[in-house]
Amino acid sequence: AGLEATTRARALLVLAEAALAAGDVAAANAHADAALAVRLDARLDARLDARLDAPADLAAVRLARLLADCRWAAGWELDATAWAWQGLADYDALAGRQLDEPGRVSPVRLERLAEPLFVTSRDAADRLAASGETALALVTRRRLIARLAVLAARMPAAAAALPLARADLANDLLRAERPEEALEAAREAASLEDPWARIALGRALAATG
User: Fold this and answer.
1) Rounded Cα distance, 85 and 130, in Å
2) How many H-runs (helices) and E-runs (strands) does the chain carry?
3) Chain centroid to CA 4: how far?
């Protein structure tokens, strides 16, 4: 029964993603809600910590992110922000400890667990910032940067994402009217030779005169 529910939830999730990509927001939300109902009915979410290798684990994070995207597209910003935060919380529960100690994790497992790190954290920070939760958004950005920095030596994808994460932090700091901190973050990002980071540096320099 659990395997059948997992398969149904994944199918509904794919339908929701396709509907959202096609601009059918109502259908996307309906399919996402149905996928959530299937998972809750099967109590799959209660096994997140116990079955770390099961594909359904990271599927829960994917579903939370999708629900956030669907709610955002529908104009339900508070609900979207809550789901984005839930997705990040679920992800931290699944992978956080292992991401913070990558030397204790096999390369294959580490790559699988780290794959959603950037997009899940960035989505949550973006939603928080757009909803006015600036302090929490900044904390989320800094935590992402810290994890990417730890992983960068082992994973090229993490190294590639690091300058963009720093540029995001610089942009949020500028919006929070903290130009000196923004300049520091932008300089660190620009040192990694990324075009978005150079744009952030230019903005920070302009803000600090």
Assistant:
1) 13
2) 10, 0
3) 27
